[in-house]
Design brief:
Radius of gyration: 30 Å
Shape: rod-shaped
CATH class of the largest domain: Mainly Alpha
Number of domains: 3
Number of strands: 7
Order of helices and strands: HHHHHHHEEEHHEHHHEEEHHHHHHH
Length: 413
């Protein structure tokens, strides 16, 4: 169950821009209370074995109780019942005049107290306000400080200076970056490294995020979650219930984003600034112009392309999936479909912007913009045609002819 990896070997560290993460599943399970209880069950097994050797039938029951206590250490009610039984057995032995009965009563009461969950009160999450992400991909994100002044109404007209405000993040509770890196930036800092240090919980949150990005308001059945992260487990519903409880207890605002409606589970991205959504909205606006881009849209497109680059959607997701599910389920297929969508949307934006640049006499810039897109999306003939036109307009006729022959295009005047 424990997943260990080094900072040098893990692609997840690069995706989040954090080094030194270690698998935390064992640290979450083996707290001091459970260690004490395990020692108690070991002593109980030894006492039962002695009784069994002495042909006392109670010994077999004590041994079975000890084994059950270890196997179901996470079941609080079972632990309380076992130690209550031990105390009762000790009391009966005392009534029969056996001196060892006192030890049974003391053990049952003492370890029974440790079995009560009053010792496992969750500590509040450590504040990350003073921590800044150190990423090899991007500079630390500095979020603006909220002011008590009222938010002014949006202006009736959009100017060129307002282009970036339309396509950049509004005053969001969470800034979500999924393309090229994984970041979940709140006022307390980037929460992604801490989330992804928990293999199963981190995978579930990112999987729900991908489904919500694909279709807003998407919901997943508990049985589907069980097939992903509790396959082959005897008590699937109990395991999934525990995972969902841990999801809702994530640091805010992550925990409040998880929505559980009876058998349906999803992620609410309302109020979040998600890079994929901004890319999708910008592409839709550019399509509405029928190729006639004004300065506002061209500026917004340039900034978005520079910000997102050629990065992959949810990098290192395959490693997360392998750690949590051993590659079972449909999560990987959904992420791969979204990567194809993002490549197409990115190509749409770049092709529209390149056509506008050629029209304005900036063919060399159009070539620099479309070259990497053409390599990544070689099946897109519209991208190839625009690149060929930009090459000819910029005087690169040899490259234009070579590309035309590759795509079997006729020379277009």
């Amino acid at each position: 169950m424990t997943a260990l990896h080094t900072a040098a070997a893990s692609d997840i560290l690069a995706a989040t821009g954090q080094a030194g993460m270690q698998g935390a599943e064992s640290g979450r399970f083996w707290n001091w209370r459970r260690i004490v209880l395990t020692i108690g069950y070991g002593l109980l097994f030894a006492a039962g074995l002695i009784d069994f050797i002495s042909l006392d039938p109670t010994g077999l029951a004590l041994m079975a109780a000890a084994v059950a206590g270890v196997l179901f250490l996470h079941r609080t009610a079972l632990g309380i019942a076992i130690w209550a039984y031990v105390a009762v057995v000790g009391a009966v032995a005392m009534l029969r005049g056996q001196d060892l009965g006192l030890y049974g009563v003391l053990a049952g009461l003492s370890f029974g107290v440790f079995a009560v969950p009053i010792w496992s009160t969750r500590r509040p999450a450590r504040s990350l306000a003073a921590w800044q992400p150190q990423s090899p991909f991007v500079a630390p994100v500095a979020l603006p400080t909220a002011t008590p002044t009222a938010t002014p109404p949006p202006p009736p007209a959009v100017s060129a200076d307002a282009a970036s405000s339309l396509e950049s993040a509004p005053a969001a509770t969470l800034t979500v970056r999924t393309i090229g890196r994984i970041q979940l930036v709140s006022a307390a800092g980037d929460l992604a490294p801490r989330l992804l240090s928990r293999p199963v919980i981190g995978f579930l949150f990112i999987y729900l995020l991908a489904r919500s990005v694909r279709s807003a308001g998407d919901r997943l059945l508990r049985t589907a979650i069980a097939n992903e992260v509790a396959y082959g487990v005897s008590d699937q519903r109990g395991r999934v219930r525990g995972y969902l409880r841990d999801l809702t207890r994530l640091p805010q605002p992550l925990g409040s984003m998880v929505k559980i409606d009876d058998e349906l589970v999803g992620l609410d991205l309302a109020g979040c600034d998600v890079d994929f959504d901004r890319m999708r909205r910008l592409a839709a606006r550019m399509r509405q112009t029928d190729g006639h881009l004004d300065d506002e849209l061209m500026t917004a497109a340039r900034r978005l392309i520079d910000e997102l680059g050629e990065g992959e959607f949810l990098p290192a997701f395959e490693e997360m999936e392998k750690r949590a599910t051993q590659g079972r389920g449909e999560a990987g297929d959904i992420v791969r479909d979204l990567r194809v969508q993002i490549d197409n949307i990115r190509a749409d934006i770049a092709e529209s912007l390149a056509r506008a640049l050629v029209y304005r006499g900036q063919a060399a810039q159009a070539v620099a913009l479309l070259d990497p897109v053409n390599l990544r999306s070689q099946e897109r003939e519209d991208v190839a045609r625009t690149l060929i036109k930009a090459l000819r307009e910029s005087g690169q006729h040899a490259r234009a002819e070579e590309l035309s022959r590759r795509y079997d295009f006729r020379r277009e005047n």
